[in-house]
Amino acid sequence: MVLSSKSMSDSFLTISAPAEAIYKEKSSKFLTYAYPVHSEEEIRELLDALRKRYYDATHHCYAWRLGPHGEQFRSNDDGEPSGTAGKPILGQLLSNSLTNCLIVVIRYFGGTKLGVPGLIAAYKESAAEVIAEAEIIEQTVDIHFTIEFPYLVMNDVMRIIKEEQPNILSQEFDNLCTMRLSIRESRAEGLLGKLRKVESANIELIDN
């Protein structure tokens, strides 16, 4: 399932869940895995697990992108001729506008050399096939923050929340009330501007 890429800066495309595919070319077998990811640490753990599982494979080539606009990215040929594996995999992430995504192609060499054009085509097709198996979803870039306020001004705060409809992640109501909220980046300034006008309210942005 493929969605068209959005031009809005506070949304991006990724995959909803892990996916896998198998591609064969001249007796070489390519096992391909795609994962939704959120950090380099998570990527390292997934790569380590695949290397242990397929310890006898000839190559473990991969590419990934992180960040709403794919600001962080990397590709690795893992011993294949330079530019024949990681780059074609990364190219499929780029052409499908996917980020927060890792694709790993595990190759078992079948005895027949594919040559540079053949390798590029095989890794490109392997990545394309696993993307075709995945569900592509749109996610928003959200701003997270906490607001603390006296119980006396709760009606003012709740009226604003009803108007702006942020996501309420947690809330505690006592003499001093605390709420943790999130809202899409493009709508954040309107909400924060109103809340900052509430007397005695204290807002703290959260780096999530």
Given helix and strand content, the structural type is alpha+beta
Query: What's the domain count?
Result: 2
- Classify the helix fraction into a percent range: 25-40%
**What's the CATH architecture name of the largest domain?**
2-Layer Sandwich
Beta-strand segment tally: 11
What order do the SSEs take from the amino end to the carboxyl end, as H and E? EEEHEEHEHEEHEEHE
User: Would you identify the regions where 5 or more consecutive residues have pLDDT less than 50?
Assistant: 1-8
Largest sheet: 5 strands, antiparallel
| CATH level 1 name of the largest domain | Alpha Beta
CATH H-level superfamily title of the largest domain: Impact, N-terminal domain
Terminus-to-terminus distance: 29 Å
- Report mean pLDDT, rounded to a whole number: 90
Shape: elongated
Widest beta sheet: strand line-up = 2-3-6-4-5
Number of DSSP helical runs: 5
| Annotated CATH topology of the largest domain | Ribosomal Protein S5, domain 2
Strand content: 35-45%
Radius of gyration: 23 Å
Keywords:
about 210 residues; alpha+beta; Ribosomal Protein S5, domain 2; Alpha-Beta Plaits; 2 domains; 11 strands; elongated; disordered N terminus
Question: Your description of this structure?
Answer:
It is elongated, with a radius of gyration of 23 Å. The protein is 31% helix and 37% strand. The protein has 208 residues and is α+β, with helices and mostly antiparallel strands. It has 5 helices and 11 strands; from the N terminus they run E-E-E-H-E-E-H-E-H-E-E-H-E-E-H-E. Residues 1-8 have low confidence and may be disordered. The protein folds into 2 domains: 11-139, Ribosomal Protein S5, domain 2 (2-Layer Sandwich); 141-206, Alpha-Beta Plaits, CATH 3.30.70.240.
